Amino acid sequence: MEALAAVAREPHAEFTLEPITIEGPRAGEVLVQIEAVGICHTDLAARDGALPTALPAVLGHEGCGVVRAVGDGVTKVAPGDRVAITFNSCGTCPSCTAGQPSYCHQFMHLAYDGVREDGSGPITTPTGEPLTGLFFGQSSFATYSLAFERNVVKVPDDVPAELLAPLGCGIQTGAGAVMRSLNCRPDSSVLIAGAGSVGLAAVMGAVIQGCTTIIAVEPHESRRNLALTLGATHVIDPTAGPLAEQVRAIVPSGVDYAIDTSGVPAVIESLIASMTFHGKVGLIGVPADPAASVPLNIISSLSMGITITGIIEGDSVPDEFIPQLVELYKAGRFPLDKLVTTFPFAKINDAIDAQHRGEVLKPVLVQD
């Protein structure tokens, strides 16, 4: 069938709106008419060559829309169902069978290679030029997306699509880091580096967990103010002095938990220096330099019992966690609408520019 897509053709170049031809669903696949799709840093990293996705490609991995067709064997959803689309997973590796699909042993292949198990791809231009599709199992920068039964989640019709779409990656990652990966206990203290959409989702998750000291670190004053609105008890401007000193002025013994969304080694080093005994540090942010490292004082880490863990997709089991976040939003406990700014799908490049300028937190493209 014919569709319209935002195609990434060159690194660091604007997306181009182009007609595409997309195959109908094969066994286990689901064709979704996209209503809205979030823009995530990972999309831009793939476009710009930081991830192993071959260009030209149709990216996008926070889609929400309506199922229009299903392939053989699909029973979880049916045509007419509304779904959020999230990351794909194989379902058979040790991580998947243990209920940890975000650590699927095939994650890199399923997210970035853009091919089915037989090596075929579902997207071409009308002239037959192959385009890399199936990005994160969806390639939802388009009017239609081909996804898989495993990475679609039924969602209600009474929540706007632009709020459901970001749950597929960024929002579930931030909230899940607090609610699942670290499982922050009530009455604890948590330090969150970065008040973008992922960090602010973590702030909201910390409120839900009952954390009593929630510290957001962010250089932009407007984002610090929003963090306070969303439940942070304290905010820190990292330019105002050494981070660890500012943290310990609030919590002299150090914090129980810390989450990094920046990927900046110096920030991570400061988080480690801000921990109390048996503290846990969760790493979400991807560094600009793939070879980046953080110096670690082994004696100090051993004596304090500090844990440092990587976090992928907030340790989410999407069929469980996305509906949980939706219900929390409907109950007024997870105000993700405060993070989202919508743009028409055709304005994708304007949306990216606005995000780079710091004018919006979470741009979401909506289809006409």
Automatic annotation (TrEMBL):
Keywords: Metal-binding, Oxidoreductase, Zinc. The keyword Metal-binding applies. It comes from the Bacteria. Its cofactor is Zn(2+). Transmembrane segments: none annotated. Gene3D superfamilies: Medium-chain alcohol dehydrogenases, catalytic domain, NAD(P)-binding Rossmann-like Domain. Residues 12-365 form the Enoyl reductase (ER) domain. GO terms for molecular function: oxidoreductase activity; zinc ion binding. Belongs to the zinc-containing alcohol dehydrogenase family. This is NAD(P)-dependent alcohol dehydrogenase. It comes from Rhodococcus pyridinivorans. The lineage of its organism: Bacteria, Bacillati, Actinomycetota, Actinomycetes, Mycobacteriales.
